[in-house]
Amino acid sequence: MGYLKMKKGSMLLCLLPGIIWYxxxxxVPVILAGYYGFFDWSGGINKTFIGIQNYIDVLKDSxxxxxxxNNLFLVVVCLIGQLGLAFLFAxxxxxxxxxxxxxxxxxxxxPAVLSAVVVGFIWSFIYDYNYGFINAFLKLIGQxxxxxxxxxxxxxxxxxxxxxxxxxxxxxxxxIIMSAxxxxxxxxxxxAEIDGAxxxxxxxxxxxxxxxxxxxxxxxxxxxxxxxIFDLIYSLTGGGPGNSTSVMAMYAYKSSFLSYKMGYGSAxxxxxxxxxxxxxxxxxxxxxxxxxEDEG
Amino acid sequence: MKKKKKLHAVYAIPNLILLLFSITCIFPxxxxxxxxxxxxxxxxxxxxxxxxxxxxxxYISILTDSELLKWLFNSFRTSLLALLFILLFGFxxxxxxxxxxxxGRNALYAYFLIGMLIPVHALMVPxxxxxxxxxxxxxxxxxxxxxxxxxLPIAVFLVESYxxxxxxxxxxxxxxxxxxxxxxxxxxxxxxxxxxLITIGIIQFFYIWNEFxxxxxxxxxxxxxxxxxxxxxxxxxxxxxxxxxxxxxxxAILPTMIIYFIFSKQIIKGMVAGAVKG
Lengths: 296, 278
Hints:
The complex is a heterodimer.
Chain A: H1 8-25, H2 27-36, E1 39-41, E2 47-49, H3 53-60, H4 62-94, H5 101-109, H6 116-127, H7 133-140, H8 157-182, H9 186-194, H10 199-210, H11 212-227, H12 231-236, H13 248-258, H14 262-295
Antiparallel strand pairs in A: 1-2
Helix pairs in contact in A: 2-14, 3-14, 4-8, 4-11, 4-13, 5-8, 11-14, 13-14
Chain B: H1 2-35, H2 40-45, H3 57-64, H4 68-99, H5 105-117, H6 124-133, H7 144-163, H8 169-176, H9 181-192, H10 194-210, H11 213-218, H12 227-237, H13 242-277
Helix pairs in contact in B: 1-13, 4-7, 4-10, 5-7, 7-10, 10-13, 12-13
Main location (chain A): membrane
Organism (chain A): Ruminococcus turbiniformis
InterPro entries (chain A): ABC_transporter_permease, MetI-like, MetI-like_sf
């Protein structure tokens, strides 16, 4: 390694531009957000120090609580819908009796490369009352009386928002899970088959434990992704009707940039940051705990 | 004989399910494309039917008489410039983290790891304030700043683990031949890392092309918008002309669609690698 020696100074010179750039965008704003959170401030010159009042208000804000609940709802739905279906489809696709594997892979991954804004707009056309795909389809099959203004129905709107979200990323997780499955020694499956394991038993008792680590990665990605969801909600419902589909990022955006409560919005950003870290970190601990028990 | 037939029927079910799923994945894009070829009245008459007299009039009018082409250009320029910085800084930092055990090395590694855990919306307000104070918002280069920084962690980690597989004997040999350290790093090691750099480029291209939040907050003037925010503006203006809006959406996803369907294998592989390692 002697030849690889390098002066500390020149190494630092190489590293610094990237580190400074990164710190300027990530670290400085987080610190600033924490600081602004202590002020009653509408973005102008005048700031009034109000201590931790903003932070307290955020935690008491009923719209914020509703938004948090919506985030958690999406997390749960996506964990079941996205990962569940992704595992199921990956398992099917791994079977040697399935044709057109390459085509399925390419098609099912496609929605994941679309922008969430486009996905939101596509689905707003699908749900549209007058000219939407669903209502047109219902009329076509003679069920026109079931047509409705889907996204205005507060009772089901969260479920309707979850559908495009689940839809967009099933393929993404399916591919990740498949790549994990393909690294499992095929002999294990053959032996299980000889021992008489059926398809389902194979999936639950053999495949699942063998790709545990990948599944943990998927769960983490899924939780983190749904805690920060914004674009899709913005383009699909804008948080409405009322605040019924609001999520934390949406509400932080509205408070800061539409109501000009910059101090309040900053405090909310910090609360979102902490909640996300707690939820992601907590789920990690939980999963490690359970998978350890499995081994013991 | 009978048993064999029954078995085939059983296997038809997963085939059918997967086929249905694949169709639902691609169908919305197909619906967009053929609807964009319809007249307004024809679309309102029947949103599902195929166009009777396909016409590209919406495409002509949008490309000649709207800002959309400009937004596409802005998205391309931002993506390319940001990618340049991401690859340069990501490679440099990743390389040194991988090759050297200097003091603070682990702290630096953790520092980039934390960046991946921070939800971008926590940065919204302070970044807006900071950028407007410094006069950095609403410029042609504005978005390159956050996109580069936010992409660095994944680039650093992918390079860091890749460089481990590059034998350092090559670098020693280069040193004996009189190549300076920096020259070796950038003209010998960096080209050897091409596969991982391409992977990073692909993943981050899609991220930047689709990014919405910072573009929404940091850019005000229409002529500097990128395509996702431009689309929301477009929708506000033409909310009643569905086929026209759908045409704009087709144009917005066309570059990603073309890149995706040409390179789908590499893209899928790269994204999976990025997700699992990141």
